[in-house]
Amino acid sequence: SINITSVLEELHILENNEAWSTGQNWGAGTNASSKTIFSPVDGKAIANVLFATRDDFDQVIKTAQSAFESWRLLPAPKRGEIVRQLGEELRVKKKALGALVSYEMGKSLQEGLGEVQEMIDICDFAVGLSRQLYGLTMHSERSRHRMYEQYHPLGLVGIISAFNFPVAVWSWNAALAWVCGDVCIWKPSEKTPLTAIACQKIAAKVLAANGIDEGVSCLIIGDREIGELMANDERVPLISATGSTRMGKAVGAAVGQRLGRSLLELGGNNAIIISEHADLNIALPGVVFGAVGTAGQRCTTTRRLIIHESAYEEFKTKLSAAYAQLRIGDPLDELNHVGPLIDKDAVQQYQNAIAKAKEQGAKILVEGGVLEGDGFESGCYVKPAIFEAENHFEIVQHETFAPILYIMKYKTIEDAIALQNGVPQGLSSSIMTTNLREAEKFLSHAGSDCGIANVNIGTSGAEIGGAFGGEKETGGGRESGSDAWKVYMRRQTNTINYGADLPLAQGIKFDL
Ligand code: NAD
């Protein structure tokens, strides 16, 4: 277990016994309300946090706008140097920040530390990127003309994030947006504001040490109303929103209404196909980690298993035996595999889903339930459950953010791919097979329709180097690696005439 008081001190979160964002002291002198944040690990209060008002929001926008004026003029590699220093500071604070992620959100300490490592990795990636914001040159059809394209900073980037990756999602967006010359306004999940304040303190320290306007990194703590304000505000050209599909539909509509740009990272309903050619020694741990890791609260959590009929009974037996060995409890104890859900609402949703699954005809393979008693005082610990179900059941079509796994049978690989694709969401997918034809078919244009498609690894645990995101109700956005940076910039095509006459494009004549 950790000493939370010293973690909060090391991260400089508390001032006057309440958590504050640095810099824009939006709480001061306004009607900001204070809310107590409880840990799902032990149910204890961690700290009181000031929540912003509409006036505070306006103030933050102005601070960001003014910071953008100077930040965009700093050469991209110099902006990269600031992000490099942020990565260094995160290395120093990794242990404390990782512990706070674990305690505030409820994921295992190893996953909390892993999340901070992801932040460090994306900083490294962004530093390299700061020298590689390439445009193209094209050959002009006109003589003595030069044509090329370049990328310019976009302006203010609004980041709305979910509770389950309370810090990494911010860094995926912010590190890239900063080297691209943008400034960021972050509205974290109202369920995990403390880790956000910790990140803001770390970023503010780096900015101050370099004499850079603090408004380059803005934080606004609030619930969905603040998110709605941001989505509707035309001063924020890009909204990057991570969360439920319900939220994404609202944000996408609001941003679309004003013809702004949105990057949506929404819910998943991820499946693994277990073929008759699967290596079950790989498949089993891949499935179990994917289904119960982070207590089923990853966007890439394995929610459906599509198993070949010839492997079905054997895999079912192995799966039940593996679930019987799972240890549920304090995520800060590394002997445990499964920690708590984020709060009691999430527990209620888990229970509702189990009731619906039964109603709709699903058969229990591993029974769920809420744990009580010693060590489970927060009321947020639940047992991972498995149901034998059919893909078309309404509950199977829906993402329940909890450790519930639905398993089903298939006969042909075409059927398996159709089942895998037969949900509204399109985030992550995987096939366990040693058969080359099957693997390639799954990855082909007639295969998985998801943004992520894996062979012989599970659905969760993406690397920062690739573009991350999904199709259909997952929202279509891509963040992190590859060329995801382009969404944070505006593209400009430039044509220069260095000749002494004015030939028109398409051979048009216009004689005067
Ligand atoms: P949520 O949708 O309840 O909240 C996410 C964020 O959106 C919060 O900051 C919230 O305040 C804000 N919000 C909610 N309604 C809003 C609105 N109408 N306008 C503006 N902002 C609004 O999600 P959650 O429970 O925090 O997170 C779990 C969900 O996030 C799951 O569906 C999960 O799959 C998804 N998720 C997706 C990804 C991805 O990359 N695809 C990553 C992490 C989480």
From TrEMBL:
Alphabetized, the UniProt keywords read: NAD, Oxidoreductase
Q: Name one Pfam family in it.
A: Aldedh
Q: What class of enzyme is it?
A: oxidoreductase
The annotated active site, in chain numbering, is 265
Q: What is this protein called?
A: aldehyde dehydrogenase (NAD(+))
Q: Which organism is it from?
A: Solitalea agri
GO-annotated molecular function: aldehyde dehydrogenase (NAD+) activity
- Aldehyde dehydrogenase domain sequence ranges: 34-493
| Quaternary data | Homotetramer.
EC no. given is 1.2.1.3
User: InterPro entries from the xrefs?
Assistant: Ald_DH/histidinol_DH, Ald_DH_C, Ald_DH_CS_GLU, Ald_DH_N, Aldehyde_DH_dom, ALDH7A1-like
Q: What family does this chain come from, according to its entry?
A: Belongs to the aldehyde dehydrogenase family.
